[in-house]
């Protein structure tokens, strides 16, 4: 049942990936015939799907799923901003249709369903609203899945937009009309596609956070660590800047897994610190690895990055034998400690929940952070009461 979605390969074992250039929805028509023409260095990780995730404040990001050659986990990337593209996702796969590409997220801009080809002809210069699309349907409305499997035709629109701080410009529209056994491409270039890196944002290296899964801290409201707070803060910063990547690695409990992490928590309740607890369970103090993160960052076409971290180990490992350069380390100050430094601890508002503004505090967190500074080289300014 398992489907091998790995990219085709021509040589083995390297974490670097030099795959064909990004293929947009609009370029599929010409690219499909030459899909396998380019020599490929086998990647360590590759993106199998991506989708738009709207968030409560009206912003959105694209969640990317990665498979890899290191473990059986599906690692993730939260990608903010339209300029950052996955090379492996965009690569044209032999035999795939426009709808195939849209289903796995290999399109540019935004997609909207338009149930009839006639409706598509009504779109002259940009978005068609959902209401307009619905009113254009006289009989039945088909889902995308139905559209691709039924003989009657339907139309999917892929509308490419470029958003800057001041303007929103519709640049390219591609529509794929799907019939029972024929895929037709009708690509309209409403205006020339701009270079994706022509804006001033290209000058600034994007923010990147390499974040390891923490069920307890992100989902379980735990005050033993600040992982949920760090994830929220990284997302908040990337939303504000309109660009960035959270590489979300599925390595719970600094790589020992959730079950072993719970055992470590019991040892911590006996008085051992987070490092000693791991060692007593015959684990390393930190068993996380970053070669998959390195491969994902490379797949997203990033070289100069600003890394959100307090952990020097991440900087060393993500740049090791790599073209990736950390041009700036952006510290992640624990919110409760930041409040102490600024003398506003008493006014600190603690909110629960993993979506936004979660601020963690408590004696367990303080002990955890002190251990990270004293035993794991983390670069955090420790407040006087805990020194
Ligand atoms: Zn945690």
Automatic annotation (TrEMBL):
EC number: 3.5.4.25
Gene3D superfamilies, sorted: GTP cyclohydrolase II (3.40.50.10990)
Annotated segments matching region Disordered: 134-165
Keyword DNA-binding in record: no
Domain GTP cyclohydrolase II intervals: 205-331
Root EC class: hydrolase
Gene of this entry: RIB1
Pathway info: Cofactor biosynthesis; riboflavin biosynthesis
Keyword Hydrolase: yes
Reactions listed under catalytic activity: GTP + 4 H2O = 2,5-diamino-6-hydroxy-4-(5-phosphoribosylamino)-pyrimidine + formate + 2 phosphate + 3 H(+)
Cited PANTHER family: GTP CYCLOHYDROLASE II-RELATED, GTP CYCLOHYDROLASE-2
Keyword annotations: GTP-binding, Hydrolase, Nucleotide-binding, Riboflavin biosynthesis
Protein name: GTP cyclohydrolase II
GO molecular function: GTP binding; GTP cyclohydrolase II activity
GO biological process: riboflavin biosynthetic process
């Amino acid at each position: 049942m398992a489907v091998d979605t790995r990219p085709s390969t021509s040589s083995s074992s390297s974490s670097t990936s030099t795959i064909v250039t990004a293929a947009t929805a609009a370029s599929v028509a010409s690219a499909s015939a030459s899909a396998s023409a380019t020599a490929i260095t086998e990647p360590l990780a590759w993106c199998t799907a991506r989708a738009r995730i709207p968030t409560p404040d009206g912003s959105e990001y694209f969640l990317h799923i990665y498979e890899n050659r290191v473990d059986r986990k599906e690692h993730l990337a939260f990608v903010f901003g339209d300029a950052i593209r996955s090379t492996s996702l965009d690569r044209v796969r032999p035999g795939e249709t426009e709808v195939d590409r849209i289903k796995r997220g290999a399109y540019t801009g935004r997609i909207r369903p338009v149930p009839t080809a006639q409706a598509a002809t009504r779109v002259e210069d940009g978005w068609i609203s959902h209401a307009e699309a619905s009113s254009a349907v006289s009989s039945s409305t088909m889902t995308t899945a139905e559209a691709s499997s039924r003989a009657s035709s339907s139309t999917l629109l892929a509308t490419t937009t470029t958003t800057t701080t001041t303007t929103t410009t519709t640049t390219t529209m591609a529509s794929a009309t799907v019939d029972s056994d024929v895929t037709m491409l009708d690509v309209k270039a409403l205006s020339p596609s701009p270079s994706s890196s022509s804006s001033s944002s290209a000058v600034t290296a994007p923010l990147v956070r390499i974040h390891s899964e923490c069920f307890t801290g992100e989902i379980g409201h735990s005050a033993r660590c600040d992982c949920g707070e760090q994830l929220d803060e990284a997302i908040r910063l990337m939303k504000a800047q309109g660009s960035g990547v959270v590489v979300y690695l599925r390595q719970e409990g600094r790589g020992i897994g959730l079950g072993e992490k719970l055992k470590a928590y019991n040892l911590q309740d006996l008085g051992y610190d987070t490092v000693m607890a791991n060692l007593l369970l015959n684990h390393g103090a930190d068993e996380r690895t970053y070669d998959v993160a390195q491969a994902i960052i490379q797949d997203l076409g990033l070289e100069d990055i600003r890394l959100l971290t307090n952990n020097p180990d991440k900087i060393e490992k993500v740049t090791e034998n790599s073209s990736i350069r950390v041009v700036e380390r952006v510290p992640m100050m624990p919110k409760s400690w930041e409040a102490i430094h600024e003398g506003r601890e008493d006014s600190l508002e603690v909110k629960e929940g993993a979506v936004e503004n979660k601020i963690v505090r408590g004696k367990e967190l303080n002990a955890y952070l002190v251990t990270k500074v004293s035993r794991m080289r983390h670069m955090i300014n420790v407040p006087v009461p805990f020194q």
